[in-house]
Structure to design on (617 residues):
């Protein structure tokens, strides 16, 4: 027993030594060590872990322990170079093969792999269909295959890629090699598809919490949206932001308007030529461009850790897509702000394209996903709880402290009269219409559809003048939540009155609701990191980081993350030993860059008569 315990202790020590040496971290995040242990036992595994939760370490660290090559399949071509740059800076032999490389470059990398000079090789899934590439793989000693973004294999996933179906053949040709399937977004149905289509052999399932505690979620009505967006960006001045738009034209126009306001913004979408996209991406990850305005349809595989603001200017197509896109904020663990602008007009735009889908099952699936997004936008309860429950995770806290519903002060109001009017309008119109039509009738809208149906002759027409359209829709949502109204699940959802609703009207009951205080209907920005770091020193360290990144032709965050620099600017380490205790400073980076960072820290400390703080173990 003692011998076994000593082996276990030795194993843990060895793993932590590798973790500190190559990645600069003292300990694993939750679940990481369990997953790595399972992979090293050569077992198949399915891992669900939120973006920024440390999925890549689950195959990068085992790759250092295996004798052969770790093959990583990823659809995000833009992300491959970033990850390989980061691995190389940590002293790990890694390369990638995709369509951006020349034939000569691919031949060079394949030769390296064949002679065992690489530990990790990233490949794009379309490579697997090429006979020549299959022959190349057959000559390699592959120890592990990691399938990133594994949800792409399922038609029920939010980002289905047909090329991922070739992974089934790869699995059969490497039957004795463990497969690790990783994703940040997968419902129960998608998880079943991943296991079946990848032919995973009794895989262990690891499901991390989907909660990103450092992210704050807000939904704003799309009224004066541009001015609201400008206000958000001014609060995040000189910080990195991504703004998602529905169309390419919308991305171009919004980027141009932001530039007119003095912001450093660039569009990024599939309609731009490759050179423009590549230059924009490079400038963004090197902190030379602050704001990217991108189409929702075009995935940005950018492993940038210091994105502080993530805005959906238009409605996303699914909660899976929304969750994954918001996950690009705050990957360094510092606060990130996620804001979604919502209007019914955006819903109609999405439905227009959904109705063009020919396959009935696919069309119905798309409509269901959109309905969940609408529900999320119209929530009157914790948004974080809704997201987590969607992915099958219960959240029992009353107040998450990180969404607009939980953080914004609320007020009680007497909803008796307006509830009576909404319920009466639903009944008078025959319980055959949605909330937009009901709102139009109540507010006396001069709309052709209302006139054609004769609803302008009803007693409820024009009886509401003290509530806006968005107010009526909000209260209708509260009536649904209270069980007085119900909404059908058909493609064009209609409202009906429940038995409880009829009883409320018949018995003249009273009703009190809570709502956001009217004067508080603006987004507030999350607090900064808990460390009260020296901002001047942080600025000097960022300048040094940019210089080193430019010399090495890598993004600044590959050198050190903002979180690491903030720790340096708080603890002010004066020696190699102290600097090595800062999270993110591994042995390789300490040897290569320790002296230059220490010289800046020491000079600042001398100038301002500041002392080193003890870095906790």
């Amino acid at each position: 027993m003692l011998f076994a315990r000593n082996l276990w202790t030795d194993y843990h020590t060895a793993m932590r030594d590798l973790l500190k040496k190559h990645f600069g971290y003292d300990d694993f995040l939750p679940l990481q060590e369990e997953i790595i242990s399972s992979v090293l036992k050569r077992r198949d595994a399915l891992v669900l872990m939120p973006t920024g939760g440390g999925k890549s370490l689950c195959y990068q660290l085992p790759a250092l322990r295996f004798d052969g090559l770790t093959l990583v399949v990823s659809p995000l071509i833009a992300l491959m170079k970033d990850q390989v740059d980061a691995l190389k800076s940590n002293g790990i032999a890694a390369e990638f093969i995709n369509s951006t490389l020349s034939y000569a470059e691919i031949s060079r990398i394949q030769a390296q792999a064949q002679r065992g000079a690489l530990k990790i090789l990233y490949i794009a899934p379309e490579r697997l269909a090429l006979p020549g590439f299959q022959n190349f793989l057959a000559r390699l000693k592959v120890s592990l295959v990691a399938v990133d973004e594994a949800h792409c294999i399922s038609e029920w996933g939010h980002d289905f890629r047909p090329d991922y179906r070739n992974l089934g053949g790869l699995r059969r040709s490497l039957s004795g090699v463990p497969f690790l399937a990783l994703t940040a977004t997968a419902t129960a149905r998608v998880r079943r598809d991943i296991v079946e289509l990848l032919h995973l052999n009794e895989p262990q399932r690891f499901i991390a919490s989907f909660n990103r505690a450092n992210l704050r979620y807000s939904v704003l009505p799309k009224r004066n949206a541009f001015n609201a967006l400008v206000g958000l960006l001014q609060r995040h001045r000189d910080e990195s932001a991504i703004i998602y738009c529905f169309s390419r034209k919308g991305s171009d126009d919004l980027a141009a308007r932001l530039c007119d306001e003095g912001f450093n913004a660039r569009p990024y979408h599939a309609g731009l030529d490759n050179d423009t996209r590549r230059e924009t991406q490079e400038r963004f990850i090197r902190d030379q461009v602050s704001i990217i305005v991108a189409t929702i349809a075009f995935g940005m595989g950018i492993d940038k850790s210091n994105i502080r603001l993530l805005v959906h200017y238009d409605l996303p197509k699914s909660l899976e897509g929304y969750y994954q896109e918001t996950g690009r904020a705050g990957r360094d663990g510092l606060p990130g702000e996620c804001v979604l602008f919502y209007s019914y007009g955006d819903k109609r735009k999405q439905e227009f394209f959904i109705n063009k889908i020919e396959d009935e099952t696919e069309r119905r699936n798309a409509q269901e996903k959109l309905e969940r997004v609408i529900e999320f936008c119209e929530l009157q309860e914790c948004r974080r709880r809704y997201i987590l429950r969607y992915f099958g995770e219960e959240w029992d806290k009353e107040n998450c402290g990180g969404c607009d519903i939980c953080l914004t002060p609320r007020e009680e109001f007497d909803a008796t009269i307006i509830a009576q009017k909404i319920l009466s309008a639903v009944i008078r119109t025959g319980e055959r219409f949605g909330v937009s039509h009901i709102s139009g009738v109540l507010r006396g809208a001069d709309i052709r559809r209302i006139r054609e149906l004769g609803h302008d002759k009803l007693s409820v027409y024009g009886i509401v003048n003290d509530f806006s359209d968005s107010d009526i829709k909000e209260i209708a949502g509260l009536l649904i939540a209270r069980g007085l109204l119900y909404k059908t699940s058909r493609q064009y959802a209609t409202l009906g009155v429940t038995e409880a609703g009829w009883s409320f009207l018949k018995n003249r009951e009273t009703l009190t609701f809570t709502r956001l205080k009217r004067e508080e209907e603006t987004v507030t920005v999350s607090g900064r990191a808990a460390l009260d770091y020296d901002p001047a020193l942080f600025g000097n360290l960022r300048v040094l980081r940019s210089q080193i990144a430019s010399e090495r032709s890598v993004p600044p965050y590959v050198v050190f993350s903002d979180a690491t620099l903030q720790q340096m600017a708080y603890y002010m380490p004066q020696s190699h030993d102290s600097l090595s205790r800062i999270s993110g400073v591994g042995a390789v980076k300490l040897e290569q860059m320790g002296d230059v960072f220490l010289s800046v820290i020491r000079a600042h400390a001398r100038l301002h008569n500041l002392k080193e703080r003890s870095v906790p173990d």
